[in-house]
Amino acid sequence: MSALWEIWPREPDLSRTADPVNGWSQLVLTERDSLPHTWTVTAPTAVAATFLGGGGCILDRDGQQIVSGRLTGATGDLITATLTFEGDKARYWDRLAWPVPTHALAESPSTFGAAHDTRSGARETVLLAYLAANLGATALTARRMTDVTLPASAGRGGSTQISARMDILGDLVTRLAENGGLILDLIHDESTGTPRLLATVTARTDRSDDVVFGAPQAARATSFVSNLTWSIQRPEYTDAVLFAAGDQSARTAALFQDVDAISDWAMHREGLVDYSISSNTAEMTERATTALGDASAPVAVSFDVAQGGDLTYRTDYLLGDALGFELPAGLEALILDNRLREVTTTVRAGQAEQVQLTIGTPGAQSTGTQASRILRAAMRRIANLERTR
User: Fold this and answer.
1) Beta-carbon neighbour count of residue 224 at 10 Å?
2) What is residue 12's three-state secondary structure?
3) 68, 285, 354, 373 - which has most CB atoms within 10 Å?
4) Alpha carbon 151 to chain centroid distance?
5) What is the arithmetic mean of pLDDT over 35-61?
6) pTM
7) Is residue 251 part of a domain?
8) CA-CA distances (angstroms) from residue 114 to 44, 173, 210, 280, 355?
9) What does the pLDDT look like over 68-95, one tens digit per residue?
10) What's the CATH number where 108 sits?
11) What is the mean pLDDT of the chain?
């Protein structure tokens, strides 16, 4: 029996309209563990107006809320329209991490009283503090997102220190979560009677011993897959030479290495990490950890799975979990990250849903390319230069 998917229009104030949308023919939902979810809906053109003016939608599957978010664009003709949405977690990318979040800016120029917003403590505590200061209850009134509720920190993720200076807030907090083995999300919540967006922080779960995907001949497989593809590329670098604070010959430097990548690829490849804003050891380690993660060997293993079989997504395993899988001998040793990074669900009218999983390094996508990876690396370097000026 096919699952029942419903698309509920949502007003800018987060309230639902009376009825779900009728007549849509296709839904393609891509969920990501760190980046915002995205989805497209193909529906009659007359439906498109329902979502305009800052609206969005909530997706339910068999009565269970799956994702929610805002409309980002639409295309179509007189008959059919394709609507594009992004998950509510994208709100985190609507803000920058100001060096002094309490300093109000206006058209009249002014200066911040400090170069950076430096915070230390457990990673969960630090990331929630950055959110609170730049969009939460302690943010300037003009920058506050009053419909977002932040939880209390449970102090998870290990200790760190970090300095922010106009970082993109979404990138900053998701990197902290990734380095601490945590997943940060923002979900539509109606439990209090008043709709709100509730921030959640959850720990990743290792299910690799119990949830193992593979071909029918795989000895350890607990669920069989089809259309399996894989890709592995050498790391951008294995040795991060980090330049911290200081000038010329007095500049502090340190070397951080990805020992697993060095062993697997039998090479040392150096890369420069420019972090001139601090020479604090904890900050340097955090920055180097992030840099080596970004530069690590890009790995993506994608395959189709059947819902309702031996293992079911959202019941037996979740986005962000570490999963088991079997590949031909020799390949598994090169795949150092087995976390579920992306799930694409395709629903067509009158057909069973199709689910594709992608396991791999942070940001792994079933359609990722080497060119897009190089572009992302270049953009990171440019953004870092802008912040250190």
Assistant:
1) 17
2) coil
3) 68
4) 19
5) 92
6) 0.85
7) yes
8) 53, 21, 50, 17, 49
9) 999 999 999 999 999 999 999 999 999 9
10) 3.55.50
11) 87
